Amino acid sequence: MKDVAARAGVGLKTVSRVVNEEAGVTPDTVARVQAAIDALGFRRNDSARLLRTRRTSSVGLVLEDLADPFYAPLSRAVEDVARSHGALLFTGSSAEDPRREQELVLAFCARRVDGLVVVPASDDHRYLAPEMEAGVATVFVDRPAGRVDADVVLTDNAGGTRDGVAHLIAHGHRRIGFIGDQPSIHTANERLRGYREAMANAALPVLPQWYAMGPTTPDRVRAALAVMLSGPEPVTALFAGNNRVTVTAVRVLSDHPRPVALVGFDDFELADLLSPPVTVVAQDAPGLGRTAAQLLFRRLDGLTTDAPTRTELPARLIPRGSGEIPPSS
Amino acid sequence: MKDVAARAGVGLKTVSRVVNEEAGVTPDTVARVQAAIDALGFRRNDSARLLRTRRTSSVGLVLEDLADPFYAPLSRAVEDVARSHGALLFTGSSAEDPRREQELVLAFCARRVDGLVVVPASDDHRYLAPEMEAGVATVFVDRPAGRVDADVVLTDNAGGTRDGVAHLIAHGHRRIGFIGDQPSIHTANERLRGYREAMANAALPVLPQWYAMGPTTPDRVRAALAVMLSGPEPVTALFAGNNRVTVTAVRVLSDHPRPVALVGFDDFELADLLSPPVTVVAQDAPGLGRTAAQLLFRRLDGLTTDAPTRTELPARLIPRGSGEIPPSS
DNA sequence: CTGAAAGCGCTTACAG
DNA sequence: CTGAAAGCGCTTACAG
């Protein structure tokens, strides 16, 4: 910029005015400065600019896994909102590791992002309190914040699961299994709660071998399912606690001698092409991202200084066939 | 930092030393500075630091769509490599719009990212030449750079398609259709080329109504397929030019009276659960991202100053059933 | 309409 | 082992 000023024979401030398209510069001067800019191939250094203006026009997004089909549309929605507000997006995956989440969040804060959208991997975000007090707007999405007061945008996990399990009960099932993700994950627990509530609402018992929580690896799901499907009181229907469980369940059940009804939490692309087509409880992944990002920018733009809010988006039951199979015995 | 120095009763430089864990500070001084840091809740401003050190330790990733199941693992791979080099990642979606690509790239450059990984939406990247000369390392991935000399990492699209079509020919097909993405997209053309080559290698004709290029919307694919499947010389097999085409083709073909063989470019999660299971030519999406990012950091770390390279990763045919259906007439 | 001075928060290069 | 000065590339607040 100094070079441009020298070459155009003007002051630094005038170059700044031209670069920022501020009013009040003679067309003649503008032309001279512009010529110098072009000749020198000058491009403004936004990092320096932002040091002075105290706004970086960037937000950080921390999620579980960029490559996860559920989070991909969520991050795209956050990007779209950020873009419409002129902000760039830092992204990072926590891989479900609280330490990594914290590293990423603090690295983003050290770059002085204006705000953060975080899918928590940790259940304790007190490390963020000083940053939030220092003015970093923060919205938690998909899972609640831990030990810190902040905006939260969630899916109604318990309600969605309740609906799904009630749907199975309505189709005559009495022995219904549930396979969920690790109990350390909030959404996994909420879904388990929904399952229990639906069973209780129908005055149905829940035997200990009917539900299993843990890693959603194919082996673990296979093993859990084998237990539920054997013994004197095998389940006639299964509620799969997420995407990955559903996929493995479809594989296992297609080899099973008796038909078993299936409802899965989370929709997935080819669910309607499988045989039978898979009934799911669908979340609104883009809606989560969009809502969270809009909340963030409302705070950043000073449009609201209300106390932190908690938003719950509904989940939607989509009957396709697998959830309407009657009990087999 | 000034406040910390004042409170600890030391110079600015000493605080800097402690913050950066440089050697040569009395343990006693370190303790005093650390106490002041904690008391004030001081966190180093990396933006300011980077203004001085001239390295931002960040890279920009521009791709077609963050939410696309093909690009999600690619971006995750780039993130992992960046992370292992201590760099943060800016991400953005071009939505196949050259202007948006340029906006994003230049915005990243204005923030002075150290390097860029770009999935081109444009076929002219001369706008990037000044930035590259100014030292922004750039690697293009999935599609080649346009009118600029840079590192490129591609899938062998023509070769993969050739293998897939040859596979159909080996199973007795003579009339084979091809539905591809818009001809403005490089990979779409390469795949069309592979189709033509495979047919030519087998001395088979290609009728004009057997291939169609255009948007991969369900309606367009349906219409194109209807044309190929009707008339006096209907195709007995289809090569689908990408993921989205394959999915629509599966839907249409499952309703079709005669069995039609299908091979699709790109693998997708439940391909083996459909009936028939879908034979695909699979790309290595994480491999593309990893290779591109490694190349980028090799340049950034000054480990290589060779001329730009062109890397082609092989695509792999995965027979599952749909590609092994014999001709029906 | 234009510009010189001060400063954003840090590091570099130097001196003690 | 420690610190004062200068500067990274820009903007803010002011004066002319």
Series of secondary-structure elements of chain A, N-terminal to C-terminal: HHHHEHEHEHEEHEHEHEHEEHEE
Q: How does CATH name the architecture of the largest domain in chain A?
A: 3-Layer(aba) Sandwich
**Structural class label of chain A:** alpha/beta
Distance between the termini of chain A: 80 Å
Indicate the overall shape of chain A: elongated
Word description of this protein:
The structure is a homodimer of 329-residue chains. By secondary structure, chain A is an alpha/beta fold. Chain A folds into 3 domains: 2-44, lambda repressor-like DNA-binding domains (434 Repressor (Amino-terminal Domain)), CATH 1.10.260.40; 54-155 and 285-314, Response regulator (Rossmann fold, 3-Layer(aba) Sandwich); 157-283 and 317-324, Rossmann fold (3-Layer(aba) Sandwich), CATH 3.40.50. The first copy, chain A, is 42% helix and 16% strand. Chain A has 12 helices and 12 strands. Chain A has helices spanning 2-8, 12-19, 27-40, 46-53, 71-84, 98-110, 129-133, 157-170, 186-201, 218-229, 243-254, 285-300, and strands spanning 58-63, 88-93, 115-118, 137-141, 151-155, 176-180, 211-213, 237-240, 261-265, 279-282, 310-313, 316-318. The first copy, chain A, has a 6-stranded parallel sheet with strand order 2-1-3-4-5-11, with helices on both faces. A 6-stranded mixed sheet of chain A has the order 7-6-8-9-10-12, with helices on both faces. In chain A, strand 3 (115-118), helix 7 (129-133) and strand 4 (137-141) form a beta-alpha-beta unit. Chain A is elongated. Chain A starts with a helix and ends in an 11-residue tail after the last strand. The mean pLDDT of chain A is 95. The structure holds a DNA duplex (16 and 16 nucleotides).
